[in-house]
Amino acid sequence: MESPSILKFTIPLSCFFTLLLSAATLKPVFASKVCNFPAIFNFGDSNSDTGGLSATLVRATPPNGETYFGKPAGRFSDGRLTIDFMAMGVGLPYLSAYLDSLGTNFKHGANFATAGSTIRLPSRIIPAAGGFSPFYLDVQYSQFEQFKERSQIIRRQGGIYAHLMPKKDYFPKALYTFDIGQNDLGEGFFGNMTVEEVSASIPDILDKFSLNVKNIYKLGARSFWIHNTGPIGCLPYILATFPSAQRDSYGCAKPYNDVAQSFNHKLKEAIVQLRIDLASAAITYVDIYSVKYSLYREPHKYGFELPLVACCGYGGKYNYSSSVGCGGTVTVNGSQIFVGSCERPSIRVNWDGIHYTEAANKFVFAQISTGAFSDPPVPLKMACHQV
Ligand SMILES: *[C@@H]1O[C@H](CO)[C@@H](O)[C@H](O)[C@H]1NC(C)=O
Ligand SMILES: *[C@@H]1O[C@H](CO)[C@@H](O)[C@H](O)[C@H]1NC(C)=O
Ligand SMILES: *[C@@H]1O[C@H](CO)[C@@H](O)[C@H](O)[C@H]1NC(C)=O
Protein backbone atom coordinates (compact mmCIF):
# COMPACT_ATOMS: atom_id res chain seq x y z
CA MET A 1 0.00 0.00 0.00
CA GLU A 2 1.18 3.48 -0.74
CA SER A 3 1.59 5.48 2.42
CA PRO A 4 -0.09 8.86 2.62
CA SER A 5 2.54 11.58 2.61
CA ILE A 6 1.77 13.72 5.61
CA LEU A 7 4.89 15.85 5.40
CA LYS A 8 3.92 18.02 2.52
CA PHE A 9 0.73 19.41 4.04
CA THR A 10 0.81 22.98 5.10
CA ILE A 11 -1.67 23.44 7.91
CA PRO A 12 -2.02 27.00 9.18
CA LEU A 13 -0.52 27.13 12.68
CA SER A 14 -3.66 28.38 14.41
CA CYS A 15 -5.64 25.62 12.78
CA PHE A 16 -3.03 23.08 13.77
CA PHE A 17 -3.28 24.03 17.45
CA THR A 18 -7.06 24.00 17.35
CA LEU A 19 -6.89 20.50 15.94
CA LEU A 20 -4.41 19.42 18.60
CA LEU A 21 -6.57 20.81 21.38
CA SER A 22 -9.79 19.49 20.02
CA ALA A 23 -8.41 16.06 19.36
CA ALA A 24 -7.85 15.73 23.08
CA THR A 25 -11.05 17.41 24.23
CA LEU A 26 -13.80 18.68 21.97
CA LYS A 27 -15.03 16.62 19.06
CA PRO A 28 -17.40 19.35 17.77
CA VAL A 29 -14.46 21.31 16.35
CA PHE A 30 -14.04 18.50 13.84
CA ALA A 31 -17.72 18.55 13.06
CA SER A 32 -17.49 22.21 12.10
CA LYS A 33 -14.93 21.23 9.48
CA VAL A 34 -17.40 18.97 7.71
CA CYS A 35 -17.86 20.17 4.13
CA ASN A 36 -21.63 19.75 3.66
CA PHE A 37 -21.29 19.04 -0.05
CA PRO A 38 -24.57 20.12 -1.69
CA ALA A 39 -23.92 17.92 -4.75
CA ILE A 40 -21.68 15.27 -6.29
CA PHE A 41 -20.64 15.20 -9.93
CA ASN A 42 -19.17 11.86 -10.89
CA PHE A 43 -17.05 10.79 -13.86
CA GLY A 44 -16.11 7.19 -14.56
CA ASP A 45 -16.90 3.71 -15.81
CA SER A 46 -19.06 0.82 -14.62
CA ASN A 47 -17.51 0.98 -11.17
CA SER A 48 -19.64 4.08 -10.64
CA ASP A 49 -22.29 4.03 -13.41
CA THR A 50 -25.74 4.42 -11.83
CA GLY A 51 -27.66 4.08 -15.08
CA GLY A 52 -25.96 5.82 -18.01
CA LEU A 53 -25.06 2.88 -20.21
CA SER A 54 -28.19 1.02 -19.23
CA ALA A 55 -30.41 3.89 -20.41
CA THR A 56 -28.58 4.24 -23.70
CA LEU A 57 -26.84 1.19 -25.11
CA VAL A 58 -26.77 -1.89 -22.89
CA ARG A 59 -29.67 -2.34 -20.53
CA ALA A 60 -28.95 -3.91 -17.16
CA THR A 61 -31.31 -6.89 -16.88
CA PRO A 62 -32.18 -9.27 -14.01
CA PRO A 63 -30.60 -10.48 -11.79
CA ASN A 64 -28.80 -7.12 -11.62
CA GLY A 65 -30.25 -5.10 -8.75
CA GLU A 66 -31.82 -8.11 -7.02
CA THR A 67 -30.16 -7.61 -3.63
CA TYR A 68 -30.98 -4.00 -2.95
CA PHE A 69 -33.35 -2.45 -5.48
CA GLY A 70 -35.34 -5.64 -6.04
CA LYS A 71 -35.12 -4.99 -9.79
CA PRO A 72 -32.52 -3.81 -12.31
CA ALA A 73 -31.51 -0.26 -11.41
CA GLY A 74 -29.07 0.68 -14.16
CA ARG A 75 -26.11 -0.68 -12.21
CA PHE A 76 -24.03 -3.70 -13.12
CA SER A 77 -24.18 -5.25 -9.66
CA ASP A 78 -26.68 -7.02 -7.44
CA GLY A 79 -27.17 -3.77 -5.56
CA ARG A 80 -25.52 -0.47 -4.76
CA LEU A 81 -22.14 0.75 -5.92
CA THR A 82 -19.45 2.49 -3.91
CA ILE A 83 -20.66 5.85 -5.32
CA ASP A 84 -24.13 5.11 -3.91
CA PHE A 85 -22.69 4.59 -0.44
CA MET A 86 -20.61 7.74 -0.85
CA ALA A 87 -23.63 9.84 -1.78
CA MET A 88 -25.51 8.48 1.23
CA GLY A 89 -22.43 8.98 3.38
CA VAL A 90 -22.41 12.72 2.75
CA GLY A 91 -26.18 12.94 3.19
CA LEU A 92 -27.17 13.11 -0.49
CA PRO A 93 -29.54 10.99 -2.59
CA TYR A 94 -28.25 8.44 -5.11
CA LEU A 95 -26.99 10.13 -8.26
CA SER A 96 -29.12 10.14 -11.39
CA ALA A 97 -27.33 9.33 -14.62
CA TYR A 98 -27.01 12.35 -16.90
CA LEU A 99 -27.91 10.16 -19.88
CA ASP A 100 -31.11 8.77 -18.38
CA SER A 101 -34.15 10.63 -19.72
CA LEU A 102 -36.63 9.07 -17.33
CA GLY A 103 -37.34 10.02 -13.76
CA THR A 104 -34.05 11.74 -13.12
CA ASN A 105 -33.39 14.37 -10.47
CA PHE A 106 -30.21 16.40 -10.69
CA LYS A 107 -30.79 18.71 -7.73
CA HIS A 108 -27.87 17.20 -5.80
CA GLY A 109 -25.63 16.21 -8.64
CA ALA A 110 -25.32 14.17 -11.78
CA ASN A 111 -23.46 11.09 -12.85
CA PHE A 112 -21.60 11.20 -16.16
CA ALA A 113 -20.02 7.76 -15.74
CA THR A 114 -20.99 4.95 -18.10
CA ALA A 115 -20.02 1.31 -18.01
CA GLY A 116 -17.30 0.63 -20.54
CA SER A 117 -15.96 4.20 -20.45
CA THR A 118 -12.30 4.89 -20.99
CA ILE A 119 -10.13 7.97 -20.50
CA ARG A 120 -8.87 7.88 -24.11
CA LEU A 121 -11.02 7.55 -27.22
CA PRO A 122 -11.46 3.78 -27.57
CA SER A 123 -10.72 2.13 -30.90
CA ARG A 124 -13.78 -0.13 -30.77
CA ILE A 125 -17.19 1.23 -29.76
CA ILE A 126 -20.34 -0.64 -28.65
CA PRO A 127 -21.98 -2.52 -30.44
CA ALA A 128 -18.77 -3.67 -32.16
CA ALA A 129 -17.42 -6.92 -30.72
CA GLY A 130 -15.46 -6.10 -27.60
CA GLY A 131 -16.48 -2.46 -28.01
CA PHE A 132 -16.30 0.19 -25.30
CA SER A 133 -18.62 3.03 -24.38
CA PRO A 134 -18.60 6.03 -26.73
CA PHE A 135 -18.89 8.24 -23.63
CA TYR A 136 -15.19 8.44 -22.84
CA LEU A 137 -13.85 11.03 -20.45
CA ASP A 138 -13.65 13.94 -22.91
CA VAL A 139 -17.32 13.39 -23.73
CA GLN A 140 -18.22 13.20 -20.05
CA TYR A 141 -16.47 16.54 -19.61
CA SER A 142 -18.45 18.12 -22.49
CA GLN A 143 -21.65 16.76 -21.01
CA PHE A 144 -20.78 18.33 -17.67
CA GLU A 145 -19.97 21.66 -19.32
CA GLN A 146 -23.34 21.60 -21.06
CA PHE A 147 -25.10 20.47 -17.90
CA LYS A 148 -23.61 23.30 -15.85
CA GLU A 149 -24.85 25.96 -18.24
CA ARG A 150 -28.20 24.52 -19.32
CA SER A 151 -29.28 23.38 -15.87
CA GLN A 152 -29.35 27.04 -14.83
CA ILE A 153 -31.40 28.10 -17.84
CA ILE A 154 -33.87 25.31 -17.12
CA ARG A 155 -33.93 26.12 -13.39
CA ARG A 156 -35.07 29.63 -14.21
CA GLN A 157 -38.19 28.23 -15.85
CA GLY A 158 -39.32 27.63 -12.29
CA GLY A 159 -41.96 25.14 -11.16
CA ILE A 160 -40.81 21.57 -11.13
CA TYR A 161 -37.60 22.48 -12.98
CA ALA A 162 -36.39 24.56 -10.07
CA HIS A 163 -36.59 21.42 -7.93
CA LEU A 164 -34.83 19.11 -10.34
CA MET A 165 -31.75 21.22 -11.09
CA PRO A 166 -28.86 22.21 -8.81
CA LYS A 167 -28.46 25.79 -7.63
CA LYS A 168 -25.68 27.77 -9.23
CA ASP A 169 -23.63 27.92 -6.05
CA TYR A 170 -23.67 24.13 -5.72
CA PHE A 171 -21.07 23.83 -8.47
CA PRO A 172 -18.10 25.36 -6.63
CA LYS A 173 -19.12 23.64 -3.39
CA ALA A 174 -19.74 20.18 -4.87
CA LEU A 175 -17.54 17.10 -4.65
CA TYR A 176 -16.15 15.96 -8.01
CA THR A 177 -15.46 12.23 -8.00
CA PHE A 178 -13.53 10.08 -10.49
CA ASP A 179 -13.16 6.34 -10.97
CA ILE A 180 -11.83 5.67 -14.44
CA GLY A 181 -8.87 4.00 -16.13
CA GLN A 182 -9.60 0.28 -15.73
CA ASN A 183 -11.02 0.06 -19.24
CA ASP A 184 -8.04 1.82 -20.79
CA LEU A 185 -5.92 -1.02 -19.43
CA GLY A 186 -8.57 -3.59 -20.41
CA GLU A 187 -8.77 -2.23 -23.95
CA GLY A 188 -5.06 -2.87 -24.36
CA PHE A 189 -5.17 -6.34 -22.82
CA PHE A 190 -8.13 -7.47 -24.92
CA GLY A 191 -6.79 -5.73 -28.03
CA ASN A 192 -3.83 -8.12 -28.04
CA MET A 193 -1.30 -5.62 -26.68
CA THR A 194 1.42 -7.10 -24.47
CA VAL A 195 1.43 -6.04 -20.82
CA GLU A 196 4.59 -4.04 -21.64
CA GLU A 197 2.77 -2.18 -24.41
CA VAL A 198 -0.16 -1.42 -22.12
CA SER A 199 2.26 -0.21 -19.48
CA ALA A 200 3.94 2.07 -21.99
CA SER A 201 0.58 3.68 -22.84
CA ILE A 202 -0.04 4.81 -19.24
CA PRO A 203 1.63 8.26 -19.45
CA ASP A 204 -0.57 9.22 -22.40
CA ILE A 205 -3.70 7.92 -20.65
CA LEU A 206 -2.86 10.00 -17.59
CA ASP A 207 -2.07 13.13 -19.62
CA LYS A 208 -5.62 12.95 -20.95
CA PHE A 209 -6.95 12.35 -17.44
CA SER A 210 -5.13 15.40 -16.04
CA LEU A 211 -6.34 17.57 -18.90
CA ASN A 212 -9.93 16.75 -18.05
CA VAL A 213 -9.42 17.46 -14.35
CA LYS A 214 -7.94 20.85 -15.30
CA ASN A 215 -10.87 21.61 -17.59
CA ILE A 216 -13.35 20.73 -14.85
CA TYR A 217 -11.40 22.96 -12.45
CA LYS A 218 -11.65 25.80 -14.98
CA LEU A 219 -15.42 25.46 -14.77
CA GLY A 220 -15.21 26.14 -11.04
CA ALA A 221 -14.76 22.73 -9.42
CA ARG A 222 -12.60 22.82 -6.29
CA SER A 223 -12.96 19.53 -4.38
CA PHE A 224 -11.76 16.41 -6.19
CA TRP A 225 -11.91 12.83 -4.93
CA ILE A 226 -9.99 10.53 -7.26
CA HIS A 227 -10.04 6.74 -7.03
CA ASN A 228 -7.05 4.83 -8.29
CA THR A 229 -7.68 1.66 -10.29
CA GLY A 230 -8.41 -1.71 -8.70
CA PRO A 231 -6.54 -5.02 -9.01
CA ILE A 232 -7.79 -5.89 -12.51
CA GLY A 233 -5.72 -9.10 -12.41
CA CYS A 234 -8.03 -10.52 -9.71
CA LEU A 235 -11.16 -10.24 -11.87
CA PRO A 236 -12.58 -13.37 -13.56
CA TYR A 237 -12.70 -11.69 -16.99
CA ILE A 238 -8.90 -11.39 -16.89
CA LEU A 239 -8.29 -14.70 -15.11
CA ALA A 240 -10.45 -16.70 -17.53
CA THR A 241 -9.07 -14.95 -20.62
CA PHE A 242 -5.40 -15.27 -19.66
CA PRO A 243 -5.18 -18.67 -17.96
CA SER A 244 -1.42 -18.95 -18.43
CA ALA A 245 -0.56 -15.59 -16.86
CA GLN A 246 1.54 -15.91 -13.71
CA ARG A 247 -0.54 -16.09 -10.52
CA ASP A 248 0.33 -14.49 -7.20
CA SER A 249 -0.19 -16.26 -3.87
CA TYR A 250 -3.90 -15.36 -3.83
CA GLY A 251 -4.56 -16.56 -7.38
CA CYS A 252 -4.61 -13.14 -9.07
CA ALA A 253 -2.88 -12.59 -12.42
CA LYS A 254 0.29 -10.83 -11.36
CA PRO A 255 1.42 -9.14 -14.61
CA TYR A 256 -2.03 -7.54 -14.97
CA ASN A 257 -2.00 -6.27 -11.41
CA ASP A 258 1.52 -4.95 -11.96
CA VAL A 259 0.19 -2.78 -14.78
CA ALA A 260 -2.62 -1.53 -12.53
CA GLN A 261 -0.09 -0.64 -9.85
CA SER A 262 2.08 1.14 -12.36
CA PHE A 263 -0.99 3.12 -13.45
CA ASN A 264 -1.65 4.02 -9.82
CA HIS A 265 1.93 5.06 -9.15
CA LYS A 266 1.85 7.41 -12.13
CA LEU A 267 -1.65 8.64 -11.26
CA LYS A 268 -0.34 9.64 -7.85
CA GLU A 269 2.49 11.58 -9.51
CA ALA A 270 0.03 13.22 -11.88
CA ILE A 271 -2.03 14.33 -8.89
CA VAL A 272 1.03 15.86 -7.22
CA GLN A 273 1.45 17.94 -10.38
CA LEU A 274 -2.27 18.82 -10.47
CA ARG A 275 -2.02 20.17 -6.91
CA ILE A 276 0.75 22.49 -8.10
CA ASP A 277 -1.10 23.56 -11.24
CA LEU A 278 -4.51 23.99 -9.62
CA ALA A 279 -3.67 26.13 -6.61
CA SER A 280 -7.20 26.34 -5.16
CA ALA A 281 -8.08 22.69 -5.51
CA ALA A 282 -8.37 20.14 -2.72
CA ILE A 283 -7.47 16.88 -4.44
CA THR A 284 -7.78 13.58 -2.58
CA TYR A 285 -6.15 10.46 -4.02
CA VAL A 286 -7.93 7.31 -2.83
CA ASP A 287 -6.18 3.94 -2.82
CA ILE A 288 -9.02 1.68 -3.98
CA TYR A 289 -6.45 -0.90 -5.11
CA SER A 290 -5.32 -1.74 -1.59
CA VAL A 291 -8.86 -1.95 -0.24
CA LYS A 292 -10.05 -4.26 -3.02
CA TYR A 293 -6.88 -6.34 -2.86
CA SER A 294 -7.49 -7.04 0.83
CA LEU A 295 -10.64 -8.89 -0.26
CA TYR A 296 -8.47 -11.35 -2.19
CA ARG A 297 -5.73 -11.52 0.44
CA GLU A 298 -7.95 -12.18 3.46
CA PRO A 299 -11.51 -12.81 2.27
CA HIS A 300 -12.56 -14.76 5.37
CA LYS A 301 -11.39 -12.05 7.73
CA TYR A 302 -13.96 -9.73 6.15
CA GLY A 303 -16.72 -12.31 5.84
CA PHE A 304 -16.30 -13.25 2.18
CA GLU A 305 -15.59 -16.43 0.24
CA LEU A 306 -14.55 -17.44 -3.31
CA PRO A 307 -13.35 -13.93 -4.22
CA LEU A 308 -12.03 -15.01 -7.62
CA VAL A 309 -15.28 -16.69 -8.70
CA ALA A 310 -18.18 -14.80 -10.29
CA CYS A 311 -21.49 -15.15 -8.46
CA CYS A 312 -23.49 -14.64 -11.64
CA GLY A 313 -21.77 -16.26 -14.60
CA TYR A 314 -21.24 -19.50 -16.39
CA GLY A 315 -18.48 -22.02 -16.78
CA GLY A 316 -14.98 -22.89 -15.75
CA LYS A 317 -12.93 -22.30 -12.68
CA TYR A 318 -14.03 -18.67 -12.38
CA ASN A 319 -17.69 -19.15 -13.31
CA TYR A 320 -17.14 -16.75 -16.18
CA SER A 321 -17.50 -17.01 -19.93
CA SER A 322 -16.93 -14.25 -22.45
CA SER A 323 -19.70 -15.70 -24.62
CA VAL A 324 -22.54 -15.56 -22.09
CA GLY A 325 -22.87 -13.02 -19.32
CA CYS A 326 -24.89 -12.53 -16.16
CA GLY A 327 -28.58 -12.40 -17.10
CA GLY A 328 -28.03 -14.25 -20.38
CA THR A 329 -29.10 -17.73 -21.37
CA VAL A 330 -26.94 -20.60 -22.44
CA THR A 331 -28.00 -23.79 -24.20
CA VAL A 332 -26.61 -26.89 -22.54
CA ASN A 333 -27.46 -30.35 -23.92
CA GLY A 334 -30.42 -28.87 -25.75
CA SER A 335 -31.95 -27.09 -22.77
CA GLN A 336 -31.76 -23.38 -22.01
CA ILE A 337 -30.17 -22.30 -18.76
CA PHE A 338 -30.59 -18.82 -17.33
CA VAL A 339 -27.39 -17.31 -15.98
CA GLY A 340 -28.68 -16.14 -12.61
CA SER A 341 -27.03 -15.42 -9.32
CA CYS A 342 -25.34 -17.60 -6.74
CA GLU A 343 -26.97 -18.54 -3.46
CA ARG A 344 -25.43 -15.91 -1.22
CA PRO A 345 -24.24 -12.76 -3.01
CA SER A 346 -23.86 -11.18 0.45
CA ILE A 347 -20.70 -13.20 1.11
CA ARG A 348 -19.30 -12.89 -2.40
CA VAL A 349 -16.84 -10.36 -3.80
CA ASN A 350 -17.35 -10.68 -7.53
CA TRP A 351 -20.75 -10.29 -9.11
CA ASP A 352 -20.51 -11.00 -12.84
CA GLY A 353 -16.86 -11.51 -13.62
CA ILE A 354 -16.07 -7.81 -13.98
CA HIS A 355 -18.03 -5.99 -11.30
CA TYR A 356 -18.22 -6.19 -7.52
CA THR A 357 -21.18 -7.21 -5.39
CA GLU A 358 -23.06 -4.73 -3.23
CA ALA A 359 -21.44 -6.41 -0.19
CA ALA A 360 -17.96 -5.75 -1.59
CA ASN A 361 -18.86 -2.19 -2.56
CA LYS A 362 -20.15 -1.56 0.94
CA PHE A 363 -16.86 -2.85 2.35
CA VAL A 364 -14.89 -0.59 0.01
CA PHE A 365 -16.93 2.41 1.11
CA ALA A 366 -16.47 1.62 4.81
CA GLN A 367 -12.71 1.49 4.33
CA ILE A 368 -12.26 4.59 2.18
CA SER A 369 -14.72 6.94 3.86
CA THR A 370 -12.55 7.33 6.96
CA GLY A 371 -9.61 8.72 5.02
CA ALA A 372 -7.40 5.75 6.00
CA PHE A 373 -6.68 5.02 2.33
CA SER A 374 -6.47 8.61 1.16
CA ASP A 375 -3.68 11.03 0.45
CA PRO A 376 -4.06 13.40 2.24
CA PRO A 377 -5.75 11.24 4.92
CA VAL A 378 -8.97 13.27 5.20
CA PRO A 379 -12.33 11.55 5.60
CA LEU A 380 -14.83 11.80 2.72
CA LYS A 381 -16.95 14.35 4.60
CA MET A 382 -13.95 16.66 4.93
CA ALA A 383 -12.50 16.28 1.46
CA CYS A 384 -13.15 19.92 0.58
CA HIS A 385 -10.27 21.16 2.70
CA GLN A 386 -6.70 21.56 1.65
CA VAL A 387 -4.53 20.25 4.43
C1 LIG B 1 -6.52 -10.75 -31.01
O1 LIG B 1 -5.92 -11.90 -31.54
C2 LIG B 1 -6.84 -12.95 -31.81
C3 LIG B 1 -6.04 -14.17 -32.23
O2 LIG B 1 -5.03 -13.84 -33.12
C4 LIG B 1 -7.83 -12.48 -32.89
O3 LIG B 1 -8.76 -13.48 -33.16
C5 LIG B 1 -8.54 -11.24 -32.39
O4 LIG B 1 -9.39 -10.71 -33.39
C6 LIG B 1 -7.55 -10.17 -31.96
N1 LIG B 1 -8.28 -9.08 -31.33
C7 LIG B 1 -8.11 -7.80 -31.64
C8 LIG B 1 -8.96 -6.84 -30.93
O5 LIG B 1 -7.30 -7.43 -32.45
C1 LIG C 1 -24.53 -32.89 -21.03
O1 LIG C 1 -24.54 -34.18 -21.53
C2 LIG C 1 -23.31 -34.90 -21.30
C3 LIG C 1 -23.44 -36.25 -22.00
O2 LIG C 1 -24.65 -36.85 -21.70
C4 LIG C 1 -23.07 -35.05 -19.81
O3 LIG C 1 -21.85 -35.73 -19.58
C5 LIG C 1 -23.01 -33.66 -19.19
O4 LIG C 1 -22.87 -33.75 -17.78
C6 LIG C 1 -24.25 -32.86 -19.54
N1 LIG C 1 -24.07 -31.49 -19.06
C7 LIG C 1 -24.92 -30.88 -18.25
C8 LIG C 1 -24.56 -29.51 -17.81
O5 LIG C 1 -25.96 -31.37 -17.88
C1 LIG D 1 -22.07 -19.56 -11.06
O1 LIG D 1 -23.16 -18.93 -11.71
C2 LIG D 1 -24.37 -19.62 -11.62
C3 LIG D 1 -25.39 -18.93 -12.50
O2 LIG D 1 -25.16 -19.24 -13.85
C4 LIG D 1 -24.80 -19.71 -10.19
O3 LIG D 1 -26.03 -20.41 -10.08
C5 LIG D 1 -23.75 -20.43 -9.40
O4 LIG D 1 -24.07 -20.45 -8.04
C6 LIG D 1 -22.41 -19.73 -9.59
N1 LIG D 1 -21.36 -20.49 -8.96
C7 LIG D 1 -20.69 -20.06 -7.90
C8 LIG D 1 -19.65 -20.95 -7.34
O5 LIG D 1 -20.92 -18.99 -7.41
From TrEMBL:
Q: Where is the signal peptide?
A: 1-31
Q: Does the keyword Hydrolase apply?
A: yes
Q: Which residues form a coiled coil?
A: none
Alphabetized, the UniProt keywords read:
Glycoprotein, Hydrolase, Signal
Q: Which Gene3D superfamilies match?
A: SGNH hydrolase (3.40.50.1110)
User: What highest taxon heads this organism's lineage?
Assistant: Eukaryota
Has keyword Transferase?
Answer: no
MF GO annotations: hydrolase activity, acting on ester bonds
Q: Which family does it belong to?
A: Belongs to the 'GDSL' lipolytic enzyme family.
PANTHER family for the chain: ESTERASE-LIKE ISOFORM X1, ZINC FINGER FYVE DOMAIN CONTAINING PROTEIN
From the Swiss-Prot or TrEMBL record, give the protein name: Esterase
